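Budget justification note: compute hours in this period were largely spent on complex prediction jobs such as the one shown. Inputs:
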Amino acid sequence: MRRLFLRNDFSGYPLRKDFNMDPERNMYSTEDDIEIDTTTEWYLTDSGDLKSVSHSLFTDDDFVVNIGPQHPSTHGVLRLQTILDGETVKHIYPHLGYIHRGIEKLCENFTYPQTLALTDRMNYLSAMMHRHALVGVIEEGMGIELSDRIMYIRTIMDELQRIDNHLLYTACCAQDLGALTAFLYGMRDREHVLNVMEETTGGRLIQNYYRIGGLQADIDPNFVSNVKQLCKYLRPMVQEYLDVFGDNVITHKRFEGIGTMNEADCINYGVTGPAGRASGWKNDVRKYHPYAVYDKVDFEEITLTHGDSMDRYYCHIQEIYQSLNIIEQLIDNIPTGEFYLKQKPIIKVPEGQWYFSVEGASGEFGVYLDSRGDKSAYRMKFRPMGLTLVGAMDKMLRGQKIADLVTTGAALDFVIPDIDR
Amino acid sequence: MENKLSYFGEVREALKTLSIGLKTTIKEFFTSKSTEQYPENRKTTLHIAKRHRGRLVFKRDENENYKCVACLMCEKACPNGTIRIMHEMITDPETGKKKRQLIDYEYDLGDCMFCELCVNACNFDAIEFTNDFENAVFDRSRLILHLDKEVYRGGSLPEVIEGGANWEIGTFNTGTKTK
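Corresponding output:
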């Protein structure tokens, strides 16, 4: 066991209720964080004693290269401590927590509406879905029945956000492989998606649109026509990314057979989302635990067979088409009704535990809420999408070349603030 | 993907994909540009969504009176402690009832994370966000705003408050002249 998020010299366990939160005792140290090269394994002996044994992360003659935390292709501050044998990767130790903000602990001190402000800042490319999960778990706890209009708009917004994420993903895949042109095409079209969302939500990255009991504001008058125009514009453009990058022979040579993970391992490592579906694991939360109006729309769950980086890329591309299909089915039929159901000024959730998960852009995103009947949560746990993906990188890349680490990272689609929380 | 092509067949397929890519870039070379000329288009073709959250302002009626009654709901709702309200109790000389009076509404733009919780918490419809986004200043202390003392008239770009220039999905306002 190693510390994932906190410093090595941190003492205590902040999520325990007996942790002393006195600011005087928890001053941030300006000393260097001395990194320990060992990891501790705990086990029970036959007589029931807890024993620990220390393992070394690497031996003296291992060649260790740090990739990150400031490496551009790690998409943020992620450090992958890589043990190399020549060019071949022997082992990867991810070091996380460079932007750990303690969102789960913060949520315990915030009131329920205040916690909403934090989820958008986790995976900012799935801001809508994150909020959907948090709002969903609180509404489930309070037993709020939403109107059809709210659920329709939420579904459309989730799918717009998914398109936004997938466009950025396909663009960044190209960027990490050195194809700047394809990157710019993706970013250009993402701008139109953001414009559509901004007219209604008022945000481009941090959306702040859902709230407990409905939506922040009604859709803007041009929303329906804008979305229709966007769908019309976007469909031919997706083929363009394939033409310029996805179907290119160089991309195929770099992506095929790289970072392969079979279905069984994907399930073992919890690799959800498009990365898992590329290996054939049917794990789409929208299909198997429908929320909002996903049970009423007709869409296909994309599953591919190879489980390599190329299939992950194609899975994202085909999901853009599916998202467009969903939006086109819903956009003409938004029912009239309330966009916000008035709640009490102080929101309290009755005692109990709830879990609500949504299909984020790169995996399942879940929120677990333990409420003791107060106006703030007793425990709020987020299941991030990227953490399991980074955890699986070691397995995917063992025995492959170091240059493929960047490609695999690009094709996995993780966002660091989401991992670090 | 099963590869059943001969060596030269593979080369031919590879060249085909490369030429498709080149064809696409050539096609894009002749389509219209997508760069908006920001500082130049400020007063002409700039479009900022009306709902964009740029900064917090007091809503004022035609006599420039604000509606804030210093109930402190927004201060309590803010996760960051961005809003600080000073108030005093004054007695109405006619009715003898005690009433809260706002002395100072301090809003720290530098701390704000634009989550709109204060607007949601307000029961008197006294505050709102505007799309005034040109908030850069040279000194951090100038970000601390006193909303009751200022009368907001649209900031640096009053013509953009309602959204600015028209714009259409799939296009960019690349010019700097109004049509």
